[in-house]
Description:
Elements: H1 40-52, E1 55-62, E2 65-71, E3 81-82, H2 87-100, H3 111-114, H4 123-126, H5 131-136, H6 170-174, H7 176-184, H8 188-200, E4 205-207, E5 210-213, H9 215-226, E6 230-231, E7 234-235, H10 240-246, E8 262-263, E9 268-270, E10 277-279, E11 291-295, E12 299-304, E13 309-315, H11 328-337, H12 348-354, E14 364-366, E15 373-377, E16 383-384, E17 391-393, E18 400-406, E19 411-416
Antiparallel strand pairs: 1-2, 1-13, 3-5, 4-5, 6-7, 8-11, 9-10, 11-12, 12-13, 14-17, 15-16, 15-18, 18-19
Helix pairs in contact: 2-7
Amino acid sequence: xxxxxxxxxxxxxxxxxxxxxxxxNGQWDTLSPSALNWCPQEVARLDSFLLASNSKSFIIxxxxxxxxxxxxxxxxxxxxxxxxxxxxxxxxxxxGKAQEDGLLTINDSTSQYLGSGWTNAPxxxxxxxxxxxxxxxxxxxxxxxxxxxxxxxxxxxYRADAGSQWYYHNAPYLLLRDVLQTATNRGLNNYTQQxxxxxxxxxxxxxxxLYISNAxxxxxxxxxxxSEGQWNGNVVLGDTAYLRQxxxxxxxxxxxxGYLTWLNGQSSFIQPGLPWSFSGMIIPSAPADLYMAAxxxxxxxxxxxxxxxxxxxxxxxxxxxxxxxxxxxxxxxTYIMNLNCQGIALQEEELKSDYIYPNPSQGIFHLPQGxxxxxxxxxxxxxxxxAANSSLNLSGLPPGMYMVVFEDGSSQRILLSP
Length: 418
């Protein structure tokens, strides 16, 4: 897939792991763009893109300090917004803490906490489903139902044995809330605050199945993940093995998924709402070690250990309504990776031989030699069948990110400009 820019680190890699700054007492230290060798014009381009893509708040942390913070429209530092499915990663962290506290183990059968008959599957098949399967999205429950959020037993039908099917099915995730409440004997707000309020100064609230906070709270949680469960020398989650599992491929069906967390840098990924894989990384323009808490309409917490960086975005859908993944990610990281004044663009001749070009384009994209297009997908995964030989004409379609799938199974994201 196309890498719009070579990955150039914002600061030289150190041989010793960075010492992170941790905010306290409502104060948060900052870094100037000039100290990071960021080009002012590129920062301005990033902000223009974020404003045009319906963003409400945006933060970049570097080594724990705020390197860039912006609010758009009427939004301010104190404005709150929903995390959507980005809260899945928060839930996975809480499950890890409950396991560390001896309140559950992720290999326990879910029926141990929800009781027998929580699904409409045969009893022996229901018993196969564990908490770990819920974290992986591999419960095997039928996704061809009218409402993927329905947690009633009549909506949870057997389709395949647990562990043999990956699908972005929300209902089994939603039931982790009940698992946590049963295991901890506490409400979810109570347990979240017990684990995170005193340790990292984390503030927010669960309203039904949504978590709501301001952008800085999302950044705090991202910094906790970047710090591998530690905060200013204090251990919040000491089970580093669990954290590694959470942010590594949790199964072979969709290697781009850990425990309720999306992973870049993998050989393939499955788009939410679809049952098949696409080859390549989720975000070609971003570092391979990036992982993210990703929610509907582009709510994001990106964590990038190689850059000692956390990036947060809140807002409405950047383009069209989408679930956890969208073309926004690749667009955003193209801008971020070009902030450094020493960024190096790929030469056009390199692009012509192996990639679709020009990219972005206002309509006409030229295809790599020998590549045959199977389908073009929009940001919601809907198939747009467009015949293409040496070029692809998307003139007349709405501007935004599209995915081109070739007959050989490879794929590439392209950006249609206004």
